[in-house]
Design a protein that fits this description.
heterodimer; A: about 475 residues; ten-stranded antiparallel sheet; B: about 80 residues; mainly beta
Chain lengths: ~475, ~80
Amino acid sequence: MVYKDNREFIEALEKAGELVTIEQEVDWELEAGAIVRKVCEEKGPSPLMNKIKDYPGHRYLGAPLANYRKLALSMGMDADSSIPQIAAEYLKRTNSAPIKPVIVPKEEAPCKENIIIGKDADLFTLPGPMVHDGDGGRYLATWHFVVTKDPDNGDVNWGMYRQMVYDHKTMTGPLLPFSDGGKVFHGKYKPRGEAMPFATVIGPDPLSAIAASAPSPIPETEFTGMLMQQPVSLVPCETVDLEVPAFAEIVIEGEILPDVSLEEGPFGEYTGYRTSPRDLRAVYRIKAITHRHNPITTISNMGIPTDEGQLLRSFSLSLEMEKLLRSQGIPVTGVYMLPESTHHLVVVGVKAIYTNIAAQIAQTVFGSKLGPWFHMVLVVDDKTDIYNVDEVIHALCTRCHPINGIHIYQGVGTPLYPFLSAAERIKSVGPKVLFDCTFPLDWDPFSEVPSLVSFKNVYPKEIQDKILANWEKYGFKSR
Amino acid sequence: MFNYDVFVNSLAELPEEKEVQLALRDLAAGTHKYCYKNVSALVSADQDKYDHKLQIRFGRGQVHELPYSIKILKTVERIPERWL
């Protein structure tokens, strides 16, 4: 099952008990944001808010993908699928051949049901929510993506870069130089004094959103097709040479200006803090707004875990890391990033066939394109269940030698790391740490390596099978 | 009831009786609330000195407990004309 838009996905969420429809009026100023925040902290169902103060006809969908059940549904899987099952399906689809998008005519694109161009295009006609008290402004774009194009080779990028409404015609937001969109803007358009055309897609279908947040080297337009297992339908914009998903809810078109920056932030961020202070950031000047009838603005509320940014970024970062490590011939058994770590801690399972393999893993992933987004690597052996937090913490606390097993590296980081000093943030400093939780290979397995005491490890298989077969008969509940 | 607010890193950015350029947010209720306005203005820590009430916020959104007042002298366009 592929959902061509959020409306079909909303029906699936409702059937799975992952949607709450709110019919009473909700205020765009803090109330909607607070509802979504509480939902994230409780890992609850997504709120569909059908009546927004001051904005008749508009609706909000909050926390559309903020738990694994919703992620499974978005992939057309059973909501109760396990994380390894979802990961296996994601890897299967994203290791297949890229699927190019198709261009559909305007008449077949619901995002063109309302077209507002020029002076009538006003950002305050859209219900940008004040997500957190103390934010620098109304954040219209929190679960969305920004479409841009390389001026030289035509490569298209979809990236989730937050955008704050500044005035009727202007949005502002960070465009970090090491992001894909930032590289093209800071490396090409800006030095040439040219404005970079953009299209902000709000309320995309769930798989387009997942593709936009994934750090894959495959173009997002084709990556979406791989996730969907069919081409994504795109339609040309009205005022810029870009294409956007035809079934998106709202599209804002315009240009990112090369020679001016304006205030943006602060904003509650994915780390669970407001780390980066208000600063001068990129300026998005708008030319057109198109939207569906009764459009649904998607809201993600970044803060303490778990929001969809944390969950999906953790999910896709770890699986791209797994692909990278396997491509280097490193015998990993799995890679999992805990969403609760705000995608800062990755757990790598490996069959340790040579000494110091953990250091090779850490250096490979820290030095890759994925490196700036996380700073902790924890390597465990192939017998540890990387998805089981209890087992991972046990491995960390019992197998990682405090002097020999912890390795510190200097690297590239984001200015959003809460633990960095202000000076370090400016310089993109990113300290990294490896926790090697594997026993040294030169230890004698009989006289030196401690033996794990667990149900799986210290009982004969026939005893384990007997216990498991009789578990409910004993009076326990199976989990 | 405040008319505007402004974010500063330090109160030193708001000298008394000296014209300063500020990016204000309009706090009037309605759909345009929080629209930014770039102005040249006079500000005062005396909340009654000028007609409009100004709320101060610091760099990460924290509210300063004391209200200021502001007199807007003129609006300032910071976006180069060729993009307008």
